Amino acid sequence: MSKNNGGIIFGLVGILIVLLLIAGFKSGTLNGNMIVSQLIAVVIIFALFIGFILLLKRIAPQPNQQQIQVEMNTGIEKDFIIRPITSNVTFKDVAGINEVKEELIEIVDFLKNPQKYRDFGIKLPKGVLLVGPPGVGKTLIAKALAGEAGVPFFYQSGSSFVQMYVGVGAKRVRDLFSKAKAQAPSIIFIDEIDAIGKARGNLRNDEREATLNQLLTEMDGFEGSEGVIVIGATNKVELLDEALLRPGRFDRRIFVELPNLQERIEILKVHLKGKPFKGNLENIAKMTVGFSGAALASLVNEASIYALKQGKRYIEESDFYAVKDKVLMGKKKLNTYSTKEKEILSYYQASKAVIAYWLGVDFERISLVKDDFKEEDKEIISKTEIMSKIETLLAGRVGVEEKFNEKYSNAHKDIKKARELAMKMIKEYGMGESLVGDDREVSKILDEAYKETKILYDSNLPLINKVYEKMLKDEVIHKEDIKKLQDEIF
Ligand code: ADP
């Protein structure tokens, strides 16, 4: 029994005795030895006093005592073990996503030879944010980074910092950083960092805020050159508190997407390594549009089990077809597209890619599900440049509407962005008819952009069709590919 529980019981027993005594005096049964009864009363009042103090302490404990109590009573601190693992994953185990690996190679070198960078006074990022849907290999990449550099890997899930008791999360963050620093060079990986780093908004949550503040303090409190790299993973970068994204914190962001056709083939290869497989991997990759790396890994596993159960000596394509639906059912809300949906997406993205190319809106690659138009980092942007962006954003809708004679909901994000840009143009930058434009002018700008895009679409149709074919096949197009395809036309 804890000290506080004892206090409560002590107090309650005291109250009970006093009540009994009062009842005794009133009913006349206790009018004998007054001295003895007075003594009893003094002892009881004293006991009551102690009990009351202890009760108060329990109701309003000090943070430290609360923490100690958490540790003693529930043992949750015991569950929070900060122990690094030695990763034996290397970049070879991570298939596809070559651009992501390229971005990380510099960090591997830095972790291997921090002194070299220190001597030159080079500052490397302290924090890297891996952004992408679940199962695309964010954890795997972070582990590979640790494996390649040969440094300890501290894994924590964001949710393990979020506790009921104020101060516990912050303490855990502090402990994690101090251990990682003691073993530098090292990598801290915080999965689902949005659990701590969600934008604070109007709803106050003291515990989460204290934890987030501690994370910010820790990140500010060391130099990149100390050799600790913090990698955060999230699916929802837009939900993160801006403070986390400021320079010197998670200022480098790397987007990891669902794998395209070629990448799916490579991931299947990695997971089939050493297994007896006979068949064409491209066929399997083609029927798994929208599968993440994790879903592909579990597909390979299910197909192997299935083949074994059938008493086969080899895993064949047919085994993959047999278990595909099972894997799909097991995954919540997996993005898979029907043939028609894939055609719509491919045409949508192809139209955007060609019109962006034509208008000089910069990008490296555009995939079936994502584009990476470069954020403008110029101080001054012209009306023409903003118009080009708006037209690029409307190009998908224009193209699909022309080709399929129908409007589809997949355009909503681009339309929203186009509208936001038009609003800024008219209402903030004063680029309309008058300095302070209204909603009518915003619509007018959007209508103009739409008409202009339609003209661009008509004049680029042959190129769009070629890009569409490639997009349908590879699910991705690079800017250089567009140039090559254009050269083929002329
Ligand atoms: P995330 O952290 O993005 O949710 P994980 O890294 O946990 O994804 O991926 C889960 C598993 O899926 C990995 O352990 C691996 O088996 C498989 N996987 C995911 N992406 C890849 C990839 N690019 N290459 C090989 N395997 C992958």
Structural features, described:
The protein is an alpha/beta fold and 490 residues long. It folds into 4 domains: 3-60; 91-255, P-loop containing nucleotide triphosphate hydrolases (Rossmann fold, 3-Layer(aba) Sandwich), CATH 3.40.50; 262-329, Helicase, Ruva Protein, domain 3 (Orthogonal Bundle), CATH 1.10.8; 339-489, Methane Monooxygenase Hydroxylase, Chain G, domain 1 (Up-down Bundle), CATH 1.20.58.760. Helix content is 60%, strand content 8%. It has 21 helices and 10 strands. Strands 1-3-4-5-2-6 form a 6-stranded mixed β-sheet, with helices on both faces. Strands 7-8 form a two-stranded parallel sheet. Strands 9-10 form a two-stranded antiparallel ribbon. Strand 3 (152-157), helix 8 and strand 4 form a beta-alpha-beta unit. The termini are far apart. The model is unreliable at 1-6 and 59-76 (pLDDT under 50). Bound molecules: adenosine-5'-diphosphate (ADP). Adenosine-5'-diphosphate binds at residues 94-97, 134-140, 233, 267, 270, 293-294, 297.
List keywords for this structure.
globular; 8% strand; Helicase, Ruva Protein, domain 3; disordered N terminus; Rossmann fold; 490 residues; 4 domains; alpha/beta; binds adenosine-5'-diphosphate; 6-stranded mixed β-sheet
CATH superfamily of the largest domain: P-loop containing nucleotide triphosphate hydrolases
Q: Assign an overall shape.
A: globular
Give the strand line-up of the largest sheet: 1-3-4-5-2-6
How far apart the termini lie comes to 87 Å
Unreliable segments of 5+ consecutive residues: 1-6, 59-76
The count of β-strands is 10
Which CATH architecture of the largest domain is right?
Answer: 3-Layer(aba) Sandwich
Give the helix tally. Answer: 21
- How many domains? The number is 4
